[in-house]
Amino acid sequence: MSRVVCWIAVPMALVLLAGHARAQERSPDPRVRLREGVKRDDLDAEARRTYDAVVNATTPYGRGLSTPIGMWMHSPNMAEHVLPLYLYLRFGGDSGDAMYFSVRLTELAILVAAREINSQYQWTSHEPTARRVGLEPDIIDAVKYRRSVDALGEKEATIVRFGRELFGSRRVSAATFARAQQLFGTAGVTDLAGLMAFYEFLFLSSNAAFDIQLPPGTTPLLPIP
Fold it and tell me: Is residue 19 in some structural domain?
């Protein structure tokens, strides 16, 4: 490429980038701005208390609320009720051990929910986490490609079957529920149902409603037709 062409190409690229930024500013879709999230300084005193209960050194969100869960702060009253439930189901609440599942099985349940509702965002966000906490590749692939779970461990297979029935037929069979109850207890199976259902709520109330997609340059990990 000649030096003249280079000098022309660089300004043109800058013009295109500036035009893209202006197009975003002029977008008729109000969600473009809303997806930037809520800043603490923009909240009133009551809403800041809700924000601070989640964004602090004792939670995984010490640096702020990112998408998609950050969208709930657009309604501080809703966030006040929803965020504590999210922290409990996802991380075990304040005690860190209130959930009836290990981190590994919690991630499995989240992956099952993401697969069954075809949530690319949740799957691509959680598959690397699941691998880091020790969820085996064959289990991940069984969920991802909807393979048989007969060869999996009893707990893992039961979680997958539970989720497939919950989302697939919108009804968990008596046999599957009884097996989950036997393995995890009544409180445990209730938490399992709540965790999976919550991720559908997360998907609909944030990703779908606010049109939250994967960050640019992120490789989708879930095969969706």
Answer: no
